[in-house]
Amino acid sequence: MPDRLSALDASFLYMEGSTTPMHVGGVAVFRRPKAGFDYDKLVDLIEQRLSLVPRYRQKVVHVPGRIARPVWVDDPDFDVTYHVRRSALPKPGSDTQLHDLVARLMSRPLDHSRPLWEIYLVEGLAKNQAAVITKTHQAMVDGIASLEIGQVMLDVSPSPRTNVENLWMPQPEPSSLQLVADAVTDIVQRPGELVENVRSAALDTVNTVEKVFHAFGVLASAVRTAATPAPGTPLNVRITSPQRRFAVARTRLDDLRAIRKAHGGTVNDVVLAALSGALRNWLLSRGENVTGSTTIRAMAPLSVREADPDSGNNVSAYLVDLPVGEPNPVVRLHHVSHAMRAHQESGQSVAADALVKVSGFAPPTLHALGARAASSFSRRLFNVIVTNVPGPQVPLYAAGARMTEIFPVVPLARNQALAIGVTSYDGGVYFGLNGDRDAMSDVDVLAAMVEESVEELMGTANGS
């Protein structure tokens, strides 16, 4: 019997609309080795690693009549060259041109008749560089053992590890009659799901939110009891187009650690404080009324690494009010640190096992987890999502090419104009800002203000 999508995963298929593509992405920049790094090498690498991510050869098939949730089935026409594509910038390609390409690619929905992922090799970049852009539908992030294709293509050495590639033979695609028969079997075993599945076939926004609230259990309870409506900001607008803008910011992990050492808190507190300063200056640049009490509420799913390497990874998700009305950068940091400590001490945070039970977790997919959570909640509860994923502090390679930078691309939730992903890697900290093309025409200005905000905090650390 084919694997059936969970209720949560299916909800992301139902929620996808013309203005809200439900895929999460990433942009990795590589330095070409002397041996070269081209399309054929990338295709060969992906083909060798596909056995590690069997879901990437499967597509979604709906059950006739929607009497049960869709199922994953092997794609008998799977063609890796359909999913691994190439693009090029006019030499020498600039960062701005790359970011424009990212925005255009992320604006396009994935083909639901095929496995729900794409990878693009972007050639023509300056300084002998190439970029790899990944897109993966959130419905695929469905278990603790799930791996993202961008994760399995990377190695810790310039010499790629060898994989024993087993000959893949697709299982026959089930007929409509078999799909119905399997669904009836499931209904007999779990009769309550019939009502849920019929309702899912005609979900509106409210029902979708309630459905996923129920799936998240503890998290929903915490939000309902602890959260008040988020303040009104230019970040919450009606999105009328799938078109996006993308911009990035860069800083050094040592700088954030120096700020933390000087003023206390955590590196994540420093990240949120820097974003608070940037959002403050961005609001002022737009002529918005900013008072001492002005806040922007961020939804911040966090990765928590335990000291015990055998203990696995934990996840916590918080709603935190960023103090954008506070003009002093150090006071902003203290406000953020106090708010995060209050969450942890009050029990409002969500236990790691609760989130893992719902959707699974592996470090490279936390951005997808954060996007899933954001898509699940009403826009009245928060203004912006900020996912911060600690990454490896050693260089990684793909087919011998060293990865120099990696930027997350977090999808927009419904009626959210901005999503921010943050990843630390090999001594750097990389911010990816994904914005609605109309509402965030100045997303590049905000990205520059992030770097300025970190510099402002560094000035206070050097002077302390």
How would you summarize this macromolecular structure in one to three sentences?
With 464 residues, the chain is of the alpha+beta class. The chain has helices spanning 7-15, 39-49, 80-83, 95-107, 149-152, 176-189, 192-200, 205-216, 218-226, 253-263, 267-285, 329-346, 352-359, 366-376, 443-462; strands at 3-4, 23-31, 58-61, 71-74, 84-93, 117-125, 129-137, 244-252, 296-305, 313-322, 384-390, 397-398, 401-409, 418-425, 428-436. The strands form 3 sheets. Strands 5-6-7-2-13-12 form a 6-stranded mixed sheet. Strands 8-15-14-11-9-10 form a 6-stranded mixed sheet, with helices on both faces. A 3-stranded antiparallel sheet has the order 1-4-3, with no helix packed on it.
Describe this structure in words.
With 464 residues, this protein is α+β, with helices and mostly antiparallel strands. It has helices spanning 7-15, 39-49, 80-83, 95-107, 149-152, 176-189, 192-200, 205-216, 218-226, 253-263, 267-285, 329-346, 352-359, 366-376, 443-462; strands spanning 3-4, 23-31, 58-61, 71-74, 84-93, 117-125, 129-137, 244-252, 296-305, 313-322, 384-390, 397-398, 401-409, 418-425, 428-436. The chain has a six-stranded mixed sheet. A six-stranded mixed sheet has the order 8-15-14-11-9-10, sandwiched between helices. Strands 1-4-3 form a three-stranded antiparallel sheet, with no helix packed on it. Strand 9 and strand 10 form a beta hairpin. Helix 8 packs across helix 9, helix 10 packs across helix 11 (267-285) and helix 10 (253-263) packs across helix 15. The chain is globular, with a radius of gyration of 22 Å. The N and C termini lie far apart (64 Å). Residues 198-227, 303-314 and 347-364 have low confidence and may be disordered.
